[in-house]
UniProtKB/TrEMBL annotation:
Organism, scientific name: Cereibacter changlensis JA139
NCBIfam families, sorted: G1P_cyt_trans (TIGR02623)
Entry keyword set: Nucleotidyltransferase, Transferase
Residue ranges occupied by any Nucleotidyl transferase domain in the UniProt entry: 2-225
A biological process term (GO) from this entry: O antigen biosynthetic process
Domain of life: Bacteria
Name the UniProt record assigns to this protein: Glucose-1-phosphate cytidylyltransferase
GO molecular function, one term: glucose-1-phosphate cytidylyltransferase activity
């Protein structure tokens, strides 16, 4: 199972930080947001990642290229330029870092990594949100529905695209644009997708949350997995401070790994 992570946006609402690093590299508890997201997936056995880079993507590449040395104790012998690893610290991850263009929109970024996805079911999420979601249950739910796509619905007040569904029917009926009057149920990312959804994306300037999702809804191919637990994105500096305070409290809700 592979997980695609969108990590190429400009993060303009966090310009205090993103002027220096891309949003997925902003640190919570001394680790990039991207690392936290990958740990969530890895806790459920998903260790093969495709990271869609764009804005300042070279810094994301540098982070993973240097990950082994950055997180281990090392001895450097300058006399012969040798390096000895004293306390190896790494992860069982395979990370494919793809330049998906500086101006590509969310759908375009997904389409650009088609060759790395292959012909199997895959996970997809954004590089700025964490949750205590059970990825295993999400995958099982997706398989039980038989649709091309599953989106995770979470609870948060109104400034995101709202999902309409009724009763116990797991099929999404309609996607509404952002509204302060919208209810609590929103698109929280953490998708499970079949490779056929890539045919719903025209190109770089396609926004995943618009035409492709609307078409999947119209064709009855989008199911909704309801997550009632913790979810928080990092859209503003206030969000970052909230996540940091939760981490500093010693029991961040999204830390489901040991």
């Amino acid at each position: 199972m592979k997980a695609v992570i969108l990590a190429g946006g400009f993060g303009t609402r966090l310009s205090e930080e993103t002027g220096i690093v891309p949003k997925p590299l902003i640190e919570i508890g001394g680790r990039p947001m991207l690392w936290h997201i990958m740990k969530i997936y890895a806790a459920h056995g998903v260790n093969d990642f495709i990271v869609c880079c764009g804005y300042k993507g070279n810094l994301i590449k540098d982070y993973f290229v240097n990950y082994y040395h950055r997180n281990s104790d090392i001895t450097v012998d300058l006399s012969d330029n040798s390096i000895e690893i004293r306390r190896p610290a790494t992860e069982p991850w395979r990370v494919t870092l793809v330049d998906t263009g500086p101006d590509s929109l969310t759908g375009g970024r997904i389409k650009r990594v088609r060759e790395h996805i292959g012909g199997e079911t895959f996970c997809m999420t954004y590089g700025d949100g964490v949750s205590n979601i059970d990825i295993g249950k999400l995958l099982a739910f997706h398989r039980s529905q038989g649709t091309l796509a599953t989106v995770t619905a979470v609870h948060l007040p109104g400034r995101f695209g709202a999902l309409d569904f009724s009763g116990d029917d797991p099929k999404v009926k309609r996607i509404r644009e952002k509204s302060l009057q919208d209810g609590q149920t929103i698109n929280g990312g953490f998708f499970v997708l079949e490779p056929q959804v890539l045919d719903y994306i025209d190109g770089d300037l396609t926004t995943w949350e618009e035409e492709p999702l609307q078409r999947l809804v119209a064709e009855g191919e989008l199911s909704v997995y309801r997550h009632d637990g913790f979810w928080q994105n990092m859209d503003t500096l206030r969000d970052k401070h909230l996540l940091q305070s939760l981490w500093d409290g010693g029991a961040p809700p999204w830390k489901i790994w040991s």
